[in-house]
Fold:
Amino acid sequence: MIRRRTRSATAARPRPSRHGRHGREGRSPVVRPPLPPLDTRAERFDLAVGTAAEFLRSAWEDLRDVRFEVGEMPEATDADGIPRWTVLPDQKRIILYRLPIERLSRPHREDELHRRMIIESCVFRAAAEYLDKDPWDLGPERFRFF
Structure:
């Protein structure tokens, strides 16, 4: 004879649920999968400009008081092309424009390293224009062995 469970037997002793609706019950709201920190293109651009500017300030005494600023777009000009930066020696300011540098510069490889190299090269070229030097002359003596 087969014994069948009655409703009263199952109602008296509820089964513990091992899995929730999607098999994820038991997780606390504090635990989450490890995700990279959220950052934007503008934040990465600011970081690249800031690190390159600090490097140049530590290498060149003339750049210690210069402010490196980030602007979105330059004002409209009648010149050929869109400027990537503006150098204002009388105000001791260098303004780098994020959108022209990011959108109009074409790296030969689309990855984070090459995008950062383009940003840093623009910082070096703007600082070289401010100092009236060649961009290759801005590296300190310890990097001149190449």
The chain has a mean pLDDT of 80. The CA atoms of residues 121 and 135 lie 8 Å apart.
